[in-house]
Amino acid sequence: MRAVDLTHPFSIHTPGWVGYPSPKLSYFQRFATQGIVSQLLELPLHSGTHFDAEMHIISGGADLASIPLDKLCGEGVIVDISDEMHDWAVIKPRHITDRIEVRKGDILIYHTGYHRYFNGAAEEDEERYFLRHPGGDREFAEWLVEMKLAWTGFDCASGDNPLNTSIRTKWRPEIADQFQAETGVSPDELYPVDDLFVMHKVPFRAGITHVENIGGDIEKALNRRCLIGAFPIPIVGGEASPCRVVAFLEE
User: Fold this and answer.
1) Superfamily for the 2-15+45-249 domain
2) Which position among 41, 196, 203, 218 has the lowest Cβ density within 10 Å, counted as fewest Cβ atoms?
3) Where are the domains of the chain?
4) In 30-101, which ranges are E strands?
């Protein structure tokens, strides 16, 4: 069995989600003064490859410490949909089901190709990564629930298309005009205001949460059924946590 890391390396350059503060890493003990190194890390929990808990979007939802290990680790599929993805692409169930068999209860990770724009990647483009990545809509969100998946993961900044988040309504509203100029379609036609963050709200209410910013060596594990594990910190009262995600492939 071979382990494939699906996690972005972490550094002070790793961004939090749009509008979130950047991580801070500092020393409070050094060899010259204490003979040992100790550091302090301050960061938004939504930094780098990270696991969202229910309570991130659901009032009264479960925290990270409540997620059982046998849900974090299990059988699933990693599917490559990158050839149909482009800026602001809307992900539909057919993008997955046309390519691989998904079984009820699986872990599902889908590869859009946008990890290559993440900070530190070969084609780094922070604005494209956060403001124009693909994302699901209500049809996709409801399909995840129908499949009773354990959790999902993806190599972009959110399960939701940026047009269906507060990026469009608060942080960078100009992307709506950019999208309409490029496509001739109003974002309101694709994403009614009542559906804001639909890829969080609908699956999370059914106990199906997700890992954002999958990366690492994902391209070495595409279109495979395998054992998958996510390892967040079991924070009591925590709504998210940076985590390691690993695919275990049979040779």
Assistant:
1) Putative cyclase (3.50.30.50)
2) 41
3) 2-15+45-249
4) 38-42, 50-52, 73-80, 90-91
